[in-house]
Specification:
Blueprint: E1 3-13, E2 19-30, E3 33-39, E4 50-53, E5 58-62, E6 64-70, H1 85-98, H2 103-119, E7 122-128, H3 133-146, E8 149-153, E9 155-156, H4 169-185, E10 191-197, H5 205-218, E11 221-226, H6 230-239, H7 246-252, E12 260-264, H8 270-279, E13 282-285, H9 287-292, H10 300-305, E14 309-312, H11 324-341, H12 350-357, H13 359-364, E15 382-386, H14 402-412, E16 418-423, E17 426-427
Parallel strand pairs: 1-4, 6-7, 7-8, 8-10, 9-10, 10-11, 11-12, 12-13, 13-14
Antiparallel strand pairs: 1-2, 2-3, 5-15, 15-16, 16-17
Helix pairs in contact: 2-3, 3-4, 4-5, 11-12
EC number: 3.5.4.3
InterPro entries: Amidohydro-rel, Guanine_deaminase, Metal-dep_hydrolase_composite, Metal_Hydrolase, Metallo-dep_hydrolases
Function: Catalyzes the hydrolytic deamination of guanine, producing xanthine and ammonia.
Length: 429
């Protein structure tokens, strides 16, 4: 099936975050790539091997981009929100991640993660795995099997730990290099490696510097955490007294590039924002986990005003849902709370979070030329949304505009309203 034609209403964002709404359009897809978009097509205008005409109440939006998700933590979803970050890591996260030494366990969990997130409409995910190279590759293979676009990172941690969940610098570099090469050998255009130092408290400067060199040499993405929790920031400041800020530590190691994504960034200082902007690095806003672990309220408007690239992340299992619709709602709630605390503050709206979950997320991952919106030349990663009363929690009791329907989806819809999911033109739900 080389040429596919999708006919119906479409909504996506432009690079400035404005909605582009077409009441009736035709998207022509060839070998997974968008070839042409036309408005108000007539029957027979375009020849295709497969034609999908959306029914009343349905519309197309781009697939969701989850910019920060811990696949290895999936079994812990919904557990441990009585603790804050550093205690939560010790009590729940590190023990579950140790289990991925068992490849059978990794296969069980990672299959579930990929299938579940695809069902939720996540067509692109930026995954943290665990320290284990072989099980990290299992995650990549599961994504290939089920057709999800993703970045997969083997976690790096060389600071010694009593529980043994750590590695030497040599082991860390060797495992990461092996993962990069073996992902390339999968020969899938959907899967990319991402270098993944957990955070500055898990890695010493030698390891982070070697990882920075590897990222430059192999031309791959980098992901890590930054300024999530005040105790974490204090510990980083104490451990790296010679550097003026948390961001400066990563910069000294060569880890801040235009393909770097930094999760959280709640408490970044002005000088750090300027540094990240100058390097082209992105912040992934994780409102659910920031709330569940009581790390703080991230001011996304401040990050936007400083010109940073920003995406959204579920951050499971710090976050309490693998559904990007729930993360969009959490981002709105956090912004509303900031507006309550700060008179005159303008909160985010549904258009803003829709952009962050689609083209904004693609831009954060330096993939804006490939995904995130419906533009000729991009991959057809798309969701068919159905807000008819028989699907999901919404009842249609009056007539709604197309923009109203998107607004209702974001504020009150769920994964039942996502009836079809396409990645590179392949239907995966």
């Amino acid at each position: 099936m080389n040429r596919q034609l999708f006919v119906g209403p479409i909504i996506h964002s432009d690079p400035q975050g404005r909605l582009d709404v077409l009441q009736r359009a035709a998207i022509l897809v060839e070998n997974g790539k968008i070839i042409n978009i036309s408005e108000n097509p007539k029957p027979g205008d375009i020849n295709a091997d497969y034609v999908r005409v959306l029914s009343a109440g349905q519309f197309l939006i781009p697939g969701f981009v989850d910019g920060h998700i811990h696949a290895a933590q999936f079994p812990n979803l919904g557990i441990g929100y009585n603790k804050c970050l550093l205690e939560w890591l010790e009590t729940y996260t590190f023990p579950i991640e140790k289990k991925y030494a068992d490849s059978a366990f990794a296969e069980l969990v990672y299959e579930a993660v990929v299938k579940r997130t695809l069902t939720m409409g996540t067509t692109t995910a930026c995954y943290f795995a665990s320290l284990h190279t072989e099980s990290s590759l299992i995650l990549a293979k599961q994504a290939v099997k089920y057709g999800q676009r993703c970045l997969v990172g083997k976690v790096n941690m060389n600071h010694s730990r009593k529980d043994g969940y750590c590695e030497s610098t040599k082991e860390s570099i060797a495992g990461t290099t092996k993962m990069i090469k073996e992902i390339a050998e999968l020969n899938s255009s959907l899967i990319m490696p991402v270098i993944t130092p957990r955070f500055a408290l898990s890695c010493d400067m030698e390891l982070m510097t070697e990882l920075g060199k590897l990222a430059k040499e192999m031309k791959v993405h980098v992901q890590t955490h930054i300024s999530e929790n005040l105790d974490e920031i204090e510990a980083v400041t104490t451990a790296y007294k010679e550097y003026p800020s948390y961001a400066a530590v990563y910069d000294a190691a060569g880890l801040l590039t235009n393909k770097t994504v930094l999760a959280h960034g709640i408490h970044l200082g002005d000088s750090e924002l300027a540094l990240l902007k100058s390097r082209g690095s992105a912040v992934i806003h994780c409102p659910s986990s920031n709330t569940c672990l009581r790390s703080g309220l991230c001011d996304v408007q401040r990050l936007k005003d400083r010109g940073l690239k920003i995406g959204l992340g579920t951050d499971i299992s710090g976050g309490d849902s693998s559904c990007m619709l729930n993360v969009m709602r959490a981002a709105l709630q956090v912004s509303y709370h900031l507006s309550i605390l700060t008179p005159g503050y303008t909160p985010l709206n549904y258009k803003d979070v829709f952009h962050l979950a689609t083209l904004g997320g693609a831009t954060a991952l330096a993939m804006q030329d490939e995904i995130g919106s419906f533009v000729p030349g991009k991959q057809f990663d798309a969701l068919v949304i159905d807000l008819n009363g028989s699907n999901g929690p919404l009842d249609n009791l009056i007539e709604y505009t197309l923009e109203n329907r998107l607004e209702r989806l974001i504020h009150s819809g769920d994964d039942r309203n996502i009836v079809e999911v396409y990645v590179a033109g392949h239907r995966v739900k």
